């Protein structure tokens, strides 16, 4: 019994020591990064991926969380608020390799056209950006072929990021509401 407790205690100690390494930088490292900021050179990074927006089926990644009664009668679903946790893939197929998740909220904010205010994070879960995020906030006029949304921040590799995400709907199933949206993102970061 004592050997089991010692092994469990040792394992817990290793996990506690390793947690700061897994969770990101600590306060000292963060302060030092900002102190060195004047010496850092800005970088421009281009990223390309596909968002798999799944509304139908048993495991939707886009779910309504609030809607006034009038949304059902509105051709633009005005007032609808939804949460997303959409998979991001390297190609347009849902079976393409995963690169991350788009996690956040959007609201239908136009009475005249299908348009959403979107606020969400691109959370990278694979590749060289694994553990980093980009924050996007802006208006998405969904019926336009190309839509430009601002990148307003980021974390990890993308600290102090600013830039643009250009969206293009590759497929949209009017019956199910499922969509595949191509993202071409250009960010300035340090």
- Rg is 20 Å
> From the structure provided, what is the oligomeric state, counting identical versus distinct chains?
single chain
Q: What is the percentage of strand-forming residues?
A: over 45%
Could you list the spans in which at least 5 consecutive residues all have pLDDT below 50? 4-23
Q: What does this protein structure show overall?
A:
About 11% of the residues have low confidence. Helices cover 16% and strands 46% of the residues. The N and C termini lie far apart (52 Å). It has an eight-stranded antiparallel beta barrel with strand order 1-3-4-5-6-7-8-9. With 190 residues, it is of the alpha+beta class.
Fill in the keyword field for this structure.
single chain, eight-stranded antiparallel barrel, 2 helices, 9 strands
Outline:
This protein is 16% helix and 46% strand. The chain is built from 2 helices and 9 strands, in the order ααβββββββββ.
């Amino acid at each position: 019994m004592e050997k089991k407790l010692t092994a469990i205690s040792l394992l817990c100690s290793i996990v506690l020591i390793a947690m700061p390494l897994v969770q990101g930088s600590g306060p000292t490292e963060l302060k030092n990064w900002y102190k060195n900021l004047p010496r850092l050179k800005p970088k421009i990074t281009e990223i390309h991926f596909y968002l798999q927006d799944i509304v139908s089926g048993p495991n939707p990644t886009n779910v309504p969380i609030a809607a006034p009664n009038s949304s059902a009668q509105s051709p633009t679903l005005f007032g609808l608020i939804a949460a997303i946790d959409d998979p991001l893939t390297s190609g347009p197929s849902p079976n393409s390799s995963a690169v991350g998740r788009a996690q956040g909220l959007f609201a239908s904010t136009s009475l005249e056209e299908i348009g959403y205010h979107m606020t969400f994070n691109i959370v990278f879960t694979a590749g060289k950006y694994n553990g980093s995020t980009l924050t996007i906030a802006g208006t998405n006029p969904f019926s336009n072929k190309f839509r430009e949304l601002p990148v307003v921040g980021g974390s990890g590799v993308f600290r102090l990021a600013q830039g643009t995400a250009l969206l293009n709907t590759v497929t949209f199933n009017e019956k199910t509401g499922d969509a595949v949206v191509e993202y071409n993102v250009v960010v300035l970061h340090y």
